[in-house]
Structures are given as C-alpha cells and as structure tokens.
Design brief:
Trehalose-6-phosphate synthase; 18 strands; 17 helices; globular; transmembrane; binds 6-O-phosphono-beta-D-fructofuranose; 6-stranded parallel beta sheet; alpha/beta; alpha,alpha-trehalose-phosphate synthase (UDP-forming) activity
C-alpha cells in the first residue's frame, strides 16, 4: 500500500484471475460464503485487501449471481469490505473449453512436465481465446484511468496481456505465472506456442517463482519468436516493446496476529487425535493438497510402504493424515487419481493396519485455514512431495504455523520452495525408498535439531512474505513508469 501511494500515486489496481477469492454457494442453511483451496487466492487476497482496487474473476458459485449487484460487483471481504470483486460469467461451454480443457488438460500438464500427456483440442483453444477476450473487456470496463496497474494471474490468461495492451496501451501489466515454465523442447509441442508467447509479451513485467522458469521462458521466446533477448538485463524486446522477465518467489501472509492464542500445538494435537480417533502415542505425518497428480500423493504413500518395510518397529506408531481437497473432479485424469489413491491406501492399510489402527487416513475434503493450522501444529512431520510445483505454499504455511519451533518439513526438490527452505529435509519424490528414509530421519530427529532448523525456516518465511513478493513487483513497476516518464520528457 505504501509503495503504491509513494511510488505509484493515483494508480488504480486491477487483479485478474480465474479463481475468485470469495464464492457464494447455496448450502443447507441458505447462502454460504467459501474461500477456495487455492495458493493464488491465499497469496493475492491479503495484498488486494490492503491495497484496495478491483479483482476480476470467474463467478462460479451457485449463489454468485444473486449476491452480485447489477454491475456484477460485490464488495469483499463481506465482514470488512475493502475491495470490489467483479464477477465474469462463463457459459458451460466456455468453462469446459477454456478452464477444464485448454488450461487444465493442455497447459497444466504441459508446464508441470507431469508425465500426463497434455491434450490440445482446437475447440478448447477457441474457447480459451474467447474467454481471454471476455476478461480483457472486463478489465477495460473496470479501468477508471488510462494507466492502471493490471495484475494478471496465471496460465488461464496467457493471451490477456496483449488484449489489454491493445486497448490500454499505457497500462502497467504485470503477469504472474503461478506454475512452472518448461524447457523450450517440451513447450514446443503446444500447437499455439507462438500465440501464447505473443500474448504474454503484452506484459510490462512477467514474473515466475524461480530463475529456472524465467530462463526456460526466455529460451522459448528466443526459439519461436523474432525478438531480441537481453539475458543479462532479463528483458525481451518484441514488437517495439520491452518486457522484463523476473523471478518473484511467492509467499504467504505471516500469521502473527491471526492465530488465536489458545491454539497451542499441544491443544491442536489433542483436537486432531480426538477428531480422527487416534491413540495419544502415535506420531503424525500430514499432507495437505488439492487432489492433483502433480502433488506426488501416491508417491508419498509408496514411501510409507518402503518405510514400514525397512523399519517395521514403526508399524502401529505412525499415522499419515492426508487432506486431499477435491479439484477439477470432472476431468478423467483427476477421477483416475482419486481411484488410484483409494486403492493404494486400502492396500497399505490392509498390509500394515490392525484393529483400531490405520496407517493412512485419506480425507478427500476441503478444510478451512483454521482447521489446516491445527493439523500443521499437531504434526510431527509435514510431507510436500510434489513431482513438480511452481512454489508450493503448503510448505510455507506449515513453517508459519509452527511457533513452537518443532516439527519437520520433508520437501520435494522439485517444488520452487526448496530453493528457499534449505533446512527442510529435501527429497526426490520419484525415489520411494529415499523418501521412506527421509521419514525415518524426520521421526528420529532430536528436538534441538528440529528447533534449529525450524527457527531458520521461520526467519526465511517471515521476511520473504507475500508483501515482499507484491512489493518487489510494484517497485519494479514504479521504476518502469519512471523510465517511461523520463523518455516522454525527452
Ligand atoms: O498452481 C496454480 C494454481 O492457480 C494455484 O495458485 C492454485 O492453488 C491452483 O492452481 C488452483 O487451481 P484451481 O483454481 O483450478 O482450483
């Protein structure tokens, strides 16, 4: 907020994402308000709440239309309105082609190199283009000035920066790509690779989580577009404009004032053990994600199997609680994953379980932030075993929740977070026996060592919080605007 006021005075802020920060749904007790399970939402919401402005997103809740006004606006958060949520309505055909199809069956597996073959259909691409145009029109309608800052979020809107640029040439458009960017060889299989790159280069600044993804993007542009690439200056000149390509590691809001005091780790542990009917002496491992094949959920269960084979004295003493929020569940790949998870859990539970003891508890339900915070605080270890992940905010949320400085993070080397959270136990999720040994190391780690590691991890997350993430992008935007103003002055 201070950066906006001081460095970019009189600049309005517009955020664009597919997922909306607040969803209104019809529930048994009337209209209910939900916060979706989305890293993007947890990161962007505190920023937009602080800076105000307009957030444009797909209105997908069953009660979204009736809670919005005639301009499709609703002020949020409902208890302390701070910014305008502008909802964009999509037809079923648009939702299927743009969101389920091109974004989630095409770009999602492509960018994650997730060994799930990307599916590219011409009809989905048509929808993707049409929905990007629809959102670009919404940005132009909502803009009150000629020079807003538009924060474009994620792979749903690769074409939006160019479309907005055509109508608001002086806007500062910052596009943040929340998922990885693959190397140019992998990217080359996308039939519309040039159009995607061209669309993204309508941005003034293009952000990725880590430098590797910036390098991969720059390499893709260099290979497929007539452009000038300045690797040292991290800039691409294309079609008479320059785009800065930088890494901005996303983070979370540090929870200092938001965690109620009574929720100590001991309290949380008692609560979780009671809720899941677990014996008081078991050690707890937790995993928290959307049910997605990029998250390595099956792989951590295989690692549990290896762990029990190597360390049979732990059978009966360790429970893995896996929260798997349903996600994109109308897609075949997600349905298949759910089936596979259930089958594997049944197998492992049959192999190592006994009367009153199930080694893996799979909970395919969405949980709110308070419930998750209790789980993090109750856990002896938290496992993040993504096969490939832009950043992964669960790793950071776990660290932020542990104000008792205990607990161990087991973290995939292929999550962007592993570049910052060096005191975690870093694992290769493709190596089940290696990950099983990491569980053993975590479970037998002396408390002094846990504290030493956790203290350092907490320093990193506290200082590299989401305000720093947004602040660095806005500072770069301010520098860019100053440069443009100097140029205008001649
Ligand atoms: O990782 C990209 C991302 O947009 C995250 O920010 C978010 O957690 C996830 O995908 C949510 O996906 P969806 O909005 O499709 O449920």
């Amino acid at each position: 907020k201070q950066i906006l006021a001081a460095e970019l005075p009189d600049t309005e802020l517009i955020v664009v994402s597919n997922r909306e920060p607040y969803v209104h749904e019809h529930g048994p007790g009337g209209v209910e308000l939900k916060v979706p399970a989305s890293g993007l939402v947890s990161a962007l919401e505190p920023i937009t709440r602080t800076c105000a402005g307009t957030w444009i997103a797909h209105g997908g809740g069953s009660a979204d239309r009736e809670t919005a006004d005639a301009n499709d606006h609703v002020m949020v958060p409902p208890d302390a309105p701070a910014y305008t949520l502008r909802r964009v309505w999509l037809s079923e055909e648009e939702y299927k082609g743009y969101y389920l199809g091109f974004a989630n069956e095409g770009l999602w597996p492509l960018c994650h190199i997730a060994f799930e073959r990307p599916i590219f259909r011409a009809a989905d691409w048509e929808c993707y283009q049409a929905v990007n145009r629809k959102f670009a029109d919404a940005v132009v309608q909502e803009a009150k000035t000629k020079r807003p800052i538009v924060l474009v979020q994620d792979y749903h809107f690769a074409l939006l920066p160019r479309l907005v640029r055509e109508q608001l040439p002086e806007a500062i458009i910052i596009t943040f790509w929340h998922i990885p960017w693959p190397n140019s060889e992998v990217f080359s299989v996308c039939p519309w690779r040039e159009q995607i790159l061209d669309g993204m280069l309508g941005s003034s600044i293009l952000g990725f989580h880590i430098q590797l993804h910036c390098n991969n993007f720059i390499e893709s542009v260099d290979r497929f577009l007539e452009s000038r690439v300045d690797r040292e200056g991290a800039a691409i000149s294309y079609g008479g404009r320059t785009t800065l390509v930088h890494s901005y590691p996303i983070s979370i809001e540090w929870p200092e004032q938001t965690t109620p005091r009574r929720r100590t780790s001991a309290w949380a542990r008692r609560r979780v053990l009671e809720r899941f009917n677990l014996r008081p002496d078991v050690k707890l491992a937790v995993g928290v994600e959307r049910l997605d094949y990029t998250k390595g959920i099956l792989d951590r269960f295989h690692a549990m199997d290896e762990f029990f084979q190597q360390h049979s004295d732990w059978i009966g003493r360790l429970v893995f609680l896996q929260i798997a929020a349903p996600s994109r569940s109308s897609l075949p790949a997600y349905q298949a994953l759910y089936q596979e998870c259930q089958t594997l859990v049944e197998e492992i539970n049959a192999r190592y379980g006994s009367e009153g003891y199930q080694p893996i508890v799979l909970i395919p339900e969405h949980h709110d932030q308070h419930e998750l915070s209790d789980l993090y605080r109750a856990a002896d270890l938290c496992v993040v075993s993504s096969l490939h992940d832009g950043m992964n905010l669960v790793a950071k949320e776990f660290v932020a929740a542990r104000d008792d400085e205990a607990g161990v993070l087991v973290l995939s080397a292929f999550a962007g977070a592993s570049r910052e959270l060096l005191e975690a136990i870093i694992v290769n999720p493709f190596d089940a026996s290696g990950m099983g040994e990491a569980f053993y190391q975590a479970l037998t780690m002396p408390i002094e060592e846990q504290r030493m590691r956790m203290r350092r991890l907490r320093e990193v997350v506290r200082s590299n919080n989401v305000y720093r993430w947004a602040g660095s992008m806005l500072m770069d935007a301010a520098r860019l605007r100053q440069r443009e103003q100097f140029r205008e002055l001649g």
